[in-house]
Each structure stands twice: as structure tokens, then as C-alpha cells.
Specification:
Elements lengths: L9 H12 L4 H5 L7 H10 L4 H25 L5 E3 L5 E3 L1 H21 L1 H4 L20 H25 L15 H12 L7
Antiparallel strand pairs: 1-2
Helix pairs in contact: 1-4, 3-4, 4-5
Length: 198
């Protein structure tokens, strides 16, 4: 059942931001009676209705920090780690432990994507990968395989850098001017000396 549209008001905007800052998700807030749907709230932020964008951004940031605190609380909570079975013996509750692990991992993943400079993995990229191209010793197919490997490695490193930096490099747009075989065929023709009588 669709919700009745709720128009923007400062009171509703403040309530949403307060709850977001407390670590609640936008979906859970918008399920409540009298709240707009989550699409409307995102639209308000994108269109910066009455300056809502800045307040929304700050509330999200503070909420993510609350979520980071929640990770520690979930990790330290041992109350449901064990159960008492029918014989009165305390045993590990593996399902509860796995559930806690899932809750922690989900929050860690979200934080690493939402705030990569703070919670993302730190990656050090160096030029340790080299490719030695020797046309005489490798076939065209092997050369193509090696080039594909280097390009894939470059894409992976670019994606890693893009995740940690706001500057994104798109390597998928690179297209060679000539086919690999044409390039090597031209070189082979240029390198072959003219035979006498030709």
C-alpha cells in the first residue's frame, strides 16, 4: 500500500535529520506514520529544498559515526552467545554469533563505501609489476594474454584508487588504433630485409 505523500516541512526535516544522526536508517524512519517515503526525502536532499541538503549530509555523517560505535557494541555484546540446552548445559549459540558477525560486517561494508577516506581499506600501490615484451620469444597470442593481464591489473588498481579518491580514472574507454595482429604484421614487414631479385 502506497503512503500518502507528505509535503516538506522544517519540522519533519528536523525530525528526519535527528533520527539519521542517531544512526537509524532512512528506510526505517520513513516507515513510521506521518513520515514521507524515502524517495521524497532523497529528492528533498538532491533538490536542496530550503537548505535541506546540507542538514541531511551532516546528519548522515553523524549517523555513520554512530553506526561505527554500534559495531563495537555489537562485537562486545556476549549476552546471546550461549544458550542453555534441555539438559541445563550452557552451549554456544552459533546462529546468534553468526548473526552478530553479519550485523558487524554489514555495517563495516556500508561505512567503507559511504566514508572510504575514514573507514575504507588503505591501499599502497607501487610499480612492482613489470611486463617484459620480447616479440622474438613470444607468440602473438602470448603477447595478447600478457597485455590483457597488465590491463586487468591496471583496471583493478585504478578501481582501488577510485574507491579511495574522488578522482576516477576510466580505463575501459581505451581502444587501440589498430588490431594487435595488424600492428605486429606491419612491424614484421618493416623488419624483413629486401631479398635480392625482389
Amino acid at each position: 500500500m502506497a503512503k500518502t505523500p507528505v509535503p516538506y516541512s522544517q519540522e519533519i526535516a528536523d525530525a528526519i535529520c535527528e533520527r539519521l544522526a542517531g544512526g537509524e536508517t532512512l528506510k526505517s524512519i520513513c516507515r513510521d506514520e506521518g513520515m514521507p517515503n524515502d524517495r521524497a526525502v532523497r529528492s528533498w536532499a538532491l533538490e536542496d529544498v530550503q537548505g535541506f541538503s546540507r542538514a541531511y549530509e551532516r546528519a548522515r555523517f553523524v549517523g555513520y559515526m554512530a553506526m561505527a560505535d554500534e559495531i563495537i557494541a555489537l562485537s562486545d555484546d556476549k549476552t546471546s552467545d550461549t544458550i542453555v540446552d534441555g539438559e541445563g548445559i550452557r552451549r554456544p549459540d552459533h546462529a546468534a554469533v553468526q548473526r552478530s558477525r553479519l550485523q558487524v560486517d554489514s555495517r563495516k561494508w556500508l561505512l567503507s563505501k559511504a566514508l572510504p577516506k575514514i573507514f575504507g581499506d588503505k591501499v599502497h600501490v607501487d610499480g612492482a609489476h613489470t611486463l617484459k615484451l620480447e616479440q622474438d620469444e613470444v607468440s602473438d597470442l602470448e603477447l595478447a594474454r600478457r597485455l590483457a593481464f597488465v590491463l586487468a591489473l591496471g583496471r583493478k588498481q585504478a578501481a582501488t584508487l577510485a574507491a579511495s579518491d574522488e578522482t576516477v580514472t576510466h580505463l575501459d574507454t581505451y581502444r587501440p588504433r589498430r588490431d594487435l595482429n595488424e600492428r605486429h604484421g606491419d612491424r614484421d614487414e618493416q623488419q624483413q630485409p629486401q631479398r635480392a631479385g625482389e
